[in-house]
# Entry
Amino acid sequence: MSKETLAKTIREIPDFPIPGILFYDVTALFKNPAALQELSDTLYEMYKDKGITKVVGIESRGFIMRPILATHLGAGFVPVRKPGKLPAETIEESYDKEYGKDTVQIHKGAIDENDVILLHDDLLATGGTMEATCRLVEKMHPKKIYVSFIIKLKGLKGREVFGKDIDVEAVLSL
# Structure
């Protein structure tokens, strides 16, 4: 399977969640066993030699690929959730996104200075959610942070919100 074939499995939904937004639905990719395996294999190949100790997934689509990737890499999985969803003590980061404001939280102590972190999400548009998650993880002082996406939207400047010391990659550019 090629990247072009993977891209064809992604459903485009206009005017979601608000008018003017073209939403790229990766759940259509996830339901295709061959596409899911190809994506899993591709992400593994991208990060297998980076020493990843924890994969961080952002609610909610972040809970789909991230545990799969963590298992393949022999790493732990750490969820980042919206306020009030994590049961233990948390730290949080608020941010503006392309169509509103939001806050993300992580369990305090979920990451430490010995960890090499892979932050992974489905889509890089303006980068607001991932930038906030990256700031949240940076508060815990890990050794290194890698950021990856299934899709990077061409023409938007999402990559620019991350510092030069953060490696940012995407499987697909649409």
Summary: The two ends are 17 Å apart (CA to CA). Residues 33-47 form the longest helix (15 residues). Strands lie at 11-14, 22-25, 54-58, 76-80, 90-97, 100-107, 116-124, 144-152, 167-173.
